[in-house]
Target: Protein LIKE COV 2-like
Amino acid sequence: MAMAEEKESTSIPLSQAENGSTDPEDPAKSPPSSPNSSTRKACCFVLQSWFSKKFMTGCVVLFPVAVTFFITWWFIQFVDGFFSPLYERLGVDIFGLGFITSLLFVFFVGVFVSSWMGAAVFSVGEWVIKQMPFVKHIYSASKQISAAISPG
Model:
């Protein structure tokens, strides 16, 4: 009988005897998982899911804010570049002064074009632009966009 027990104990596969581990594909040979490990896995999954959802929510919220900030910063620098060389020659170096000057320039152009004389000058300039072969298409398209977004 002692010989039968020795045969049973020596019938373990060689790979399993060397590793001392169990075969994960054979449920009969794997040890039963403890309730703590399954709870830990569930908690890790819930935390990972919660973290990734909150991270994506942050990305969704911050993306439009970052794009708006970037475009606004670029636009201020772009418009500031029109009058900044004038102020540099005068020895004045204040960031945004060219932007404020540009806003005032646009305002005064609006005041001028609202007058009778300004409207006449504007219509002559518009006629000249409409006579140019390629420029007339760009002007008419931009005028349509401007009319679509204008409040009045």
